Structures are given as structure tokens and as C-alpha cells.
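Assemble and predict.
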Amino acid sequence: MTIAGKAVLVTGGNRGIGRALVDEALGRGAARVYAGTLRPLTHPDERVTPLMLDVTDAAQIQAAAGHVESLDVLINNAGISLFDDLTDRAALERHLAVNFFGTYGVTQAFLPLLVRSRGAIVNNVSLNALAPLPLTPAYAVSKAAAFSLTQSLRALLAGQGVRVHAVLTGPVDTEMTRGLDIPKSPPESVARAIFDGVENDEEDIFPDPMSATLADGWRNGAAKAFERQMAAFVETEPAK
Ligand SMILES: NC(=O)c1ccc[n+]([C@@H]2O[C@H](COP(=O)([O-])OP(=O)(O)OC[C@H]3O[C@@H](n4cnc5c(N)ncnc54)[C@H](OP(=O)(O)O)[C@@H]3O)[C@@H](O)[C@H]2O)c1
């Protein structure tokens, strides 16, 4: 997969990592970049098509899919993270609605286009899918669910030639981590590493120095070997 000449859609494309992904895709020569947003967006590059795309709104997802003729790379990036302590069921539901069902709904809507292009799905998950930060446990639950979704889609779609990547992102300097006094990576370098991972066909992408410390252990570990063993129950050779 090379980004040059391709059509890319980024949800939550107006700020943070999403905005950096839009700009990085343009820098790599994408032919068209769809930026999904909650509010109208303008972008100076004419290759950017803004799309009203609340990932929790089924009607908006369908309408957005109707505006896109062809798509090579879908990046499920939109997300929320709020402090909680698991005492409030509504907090869990809110995180699942955006981070899990949002990713699921957008993926299903754009899947026919991705099958046609033999494209790629890139889910911006989080290192918290592997281990929760107990300050944001509802967030971690939703990201663990999104990671599991990513792993199953990877196995289920392999036979149709669609690649499915998980991005196991560490702390990034965006609005989302404003309240956390920890070392953070710039969104621009994270966006670069995400597209490098897609272009190098890395299943699981560790796009920053903190997540990179876990990459070898994850890729060579028992859990990854077990994922492959489970996937073999449904995987077929990609169609030629
Ligand atoms: N920052 C980190 O340290 C970090 C670490 C690991 C993973 N991640 C993941 O990376 C992704 C981007 O995070 P970020 O740090 O860039 O966060 P951010 O700066 O808070 O941006 C979040 C983006 O998601 C959009 N969004 C929120 N709810 C939405 C909805 N219902 N429909 C569509 N868009 C929605 C926001 O739109 P508005 O601007 O309109 O609110 C915004 O564009 C998230 O999935 C996050 O979980 C971030």
C-alpha cells in the first residue's frame, strides 16, 4: 500500500492526531482526503473534501458513504476520553458509542468501497487496549473492544484482500491528554509513523517512542501467536 494517488478518509479529521493524519496523507501525495468532522470544516488544500460525519449517527454515516465514490484507506480515528471510575454506566456507554460502535458503524458503511479497492482499514486504538489506565477505565474498555474488533475484522476480511491495522498509540500531545502531566509525542510524528506502518504493511502499528517499547514483545509474544492460531479458523488466501 502506498498513499500516493489514493483516496483516504480520516474520522475526527479537524484536530489532534486526525488533523495531522489529513496533512500527512496530503504530504504523501494522496489524490483525495476525506476529513470527517462534527462541524463544517474548511481546508486550504483542494484535495480535501470535508464530510459531516458524527460516528454515532447512523444516518450521517450513510449520507457520508453516499458522497464517497471510491476509497482506499479508512482511518477510524475519532474518539473521546473522559475521566471516570466505572461507577457511572452512562460513561461506559458514551465511550462505547464513539470509540467502539462508531468504529464499527463507519467500517461497515465503507466496507463495500474498501473491498472493491482491496484497501485498508486503520483503527487508531490505544495502548490502553492492552493495559488500562485506571483514571480512564471506560475509555480502556472501549479501546479493548475496538482492538478485538480490529483483530476479528483482520481475519474475516483477509480473504477479500482488505488489510486491517491496529494502531496501539501511546500518549500524544493533543486536547485529549491535556490533563495528564506525562511525556507526549507530537501528533505530526505519530501521523508519519502511522502511514509508515500502513505502507510497510505492519499489522499492529506502534507509532511513538512509548508504544515502540512494547512492539517487539507484542509481535513475538504468546498473545500474537494465539491471535494467528485463532485467525486460521477463518482465513483464506487473499483473492488474486
Ligand atoms: N492523544 C493521545 O494520547 C491518544 C493516545 C492513544 C490513542 N488516541 C486515540 O487517537 C484518536 C484521536 O485522538 P486525539 O488525541 O487526536 O484526540 P482529540 O484531539 O481530542 O480529537 C478527537 C477527535 O475526535 C472527534 N470526535 C469526537 N467525537 C466524535 C464523534 N462522535 N464523531 C466524529 N468525530 C468525533 C473530535 O471532533 P471535535 O473536534 O468536533 O470534538 C476530534 O476531531 C482517538 O481515537 C484517541 O482515542 C489518542
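The radius of gyration is 17 Å.
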